[in-house]
Amino acid sequence: MRSRLMSEHTTINGSDVLIVVDVQNDFCPGGALPVPRGDEVVPIINRLAARFRNVVLTQDWHPAGHFSFASSHPGKKPFETIAAPYGPQVLWPDHCVQRSWGAEFHHALDIPHAALVLRKGMARTIDSYSAFYENDRTTPTGLTGYLRTRGLSRVFLAGLAFDFCVRYSAEDAQREGFAVFVIEDACRGIDMDGSMAATRGTLAALGVACIAALEST
Predict the structure, then answer these.
(1) Mind telling me the catalytic residues?
(2) Digits of tens for pLDDT over the chain (217 positions)?
(3) What is the CATH number of the domain that holds 143?
(4) Domain count, the chain
(5) Hey, what long-range contacts does 202-210 have (CB within 8 A, 24 or more apart)?
(6) Containing domain of residue 47, as a range?
(7) Has residue 85 been placed in a domain?
């Protein structure tokens, strides 16, 4: 089903926040874990961000040897799944290692008024897809408190990847009581084993609206 346009929902106001998820070099073409066509979101997000007074950027920021890296598990390969203490864990190529080029934001991302850069995935023994919780779904990042203190009540999500970090962020934002919108044409996905369709189904079941920034998408 075609995503509804942002204009069909509302005018952006001071209680809205755009959360730009992980638009980093390693998730774009040429990076260690590229999302197909991930760099295409950058100009869309730049235009979107200009409409928002409140913008948060999230940044994967892993220590070397992170638990989620396949290289940390002898005999395992990227994209295999293992049982972690907090549930299934996909093993990834080493990516977004602290202070590396791959962890930096894409060079064309231009959002100088972003008020917060939230780094996640810093704990060596647990992965963190969501902007709100680590993958045990109980350890908070502190973003909920920040948004509530600022009086922000509606969350708009864009970035990488639609079927992982954007999805988990949307689920957790909805669980925390925010009104949530995923701007789907400002996201790109990995699509592992049907994960794109599964994400759309889960978000629809939760009442999270997938909308479009551009009429042409």
Answers:
(1) 22, 120, 165
(2) 345 556 555 689 999 999 999 999 999 999 999 999 999 999 999 999 999 999 999 999 999 999 999 999 999 999 999 999 999 999 999 999 999 999 999 999 999 999 999 999 999 999 999 999 999 999 999 999 999 999 999 999 999 999 999 999 999 999 999 999 999 999 999 998 899 999 999 999 999 999 998 754 3
(3) 3.40.50.850
(4) 1
(5) 202/167, 202/171, 203/167, 203/170, 203/171, 206/170, 206/171, 206/174, 207/174, 208/170, 208/171, 208/174, 208/180, 208/181, 208/182, 209/4, 209/9, 209/180, 209/181, 209/182, 210/3, 210/181, 210/182, 210/184
(6) 4-62+94-212
(7) no
